[in-house]
Amino acid sequence: MRQSSDMAKQWNLFVRELETLLEMRGYGLNDLVSKTHLHPEKVRRLKRSLIKPHFHILNPDEIEQISEKFAFTVDEQLRIRAAILATAVEETLMNRIDPENALRAAEELFPLLVKALRQRYGRYSGLAATRGFQMTHEFIPDKDVLEPILVQFDQAMISLYLSGQSQTDQERMEQARVAQSRFRNVLTELETLCVKDPTMTQDESWNFWVEETHKNLQVIEEDILQF
Predict the structure, then answer these.
(1) Helices (H) and strands (E) in the chain, counts
(2) What's residue 72's pLDDT?
(3) Is the entire prediction scored with pTM above 0.70?
(4) How would residue 142 be classed by pLDDT, with cut points 50, 70 and 90?
């Protein structure tokens, strides 16, 4: 992972690591749209989270799809997982200390997490992906009215991921409950926004995030029912 001191500050460690792995194969974040059919809205927020302290991540299925498409090695997949965990720590620290030190702490924690995951799962190698071409047009919404709500969506996604990585049933349930509550809050905020402005039902971004929130809420609620 590139360090923030070597470049313009890049806040989201998960996206930073993902971008590094893609660039090693001659790709960029924009290629996720054409190569893995990731929605352009998600790619837009991934890129934005590099320049602003927002912590957008992808769900486990999307990460698995990207790993398969670009032939990430097992070790590279462990680095992605470590980066997500470091990002979760960074997001938590943002509310407790200043952003600069939160980023620095997460960067220092990242190699320790990589080492711990390697010790747990072992080290392997894999095939590199082939080169491709980049998307030439970006999807950029005209307004940022959704952004405060999507910050809550990011927090819910982090809780969902942490639930899946928990080592005990109690911890898994606690994180699942947090994710459930956060996704429900996101839906409430999206619906409230629609009440204030009924034209939002015609907005592509609004509809996309409503669908994404419902989908992830269903995943976490099905997980909770298994306890």
Answers:
(1) 9, 0
(2) 94
(3) no
(4) very low
Residue with tokens 């390697």: 118
Amino acid letter at 39? H
112 domain-assigned: yes
- Which DSSP letter does residue 19 get? H
Q: What is the DSSP letter of 75?
A: H
Amino acid at 214: H
Which residues 6+ apart lie within 8 Å of 55 measured at CB?
A: 11, 12, 14, 49, 87, 88, 90, 91, 154, 155, 158
CA distance 22 to 32: 9
Q: How far apart are CA 56 and CA 107, in angstroms?
A: 17
Residues 54 and 156 in one domain: no
**The total number of structural domains that make up the chain:** 2
Do 18 and 97 fall within a single domain? Answer: yes
Tokens of 173: 């349930």
Residue type, 171: E
Give first-to-last CA distance, the chain, whole Å: 37
- Asked whether 72 and 126 are in contact (CB, 8 A), the reply is yes
| CA 29 – CA 39 distance, rounded (Å) | 12
Contact 49, 56 (CB under 8 A): yes
Instruction: Answer with the one of 71, 104, 121 that is the final residue of a domain.
Output: 121
Rg (CA), the chain: 18
Alpha helices in 70-203 (DSSP H): 74-94, 99-121, 147-165, 169-196
Structure tokens at 204: 């592509």
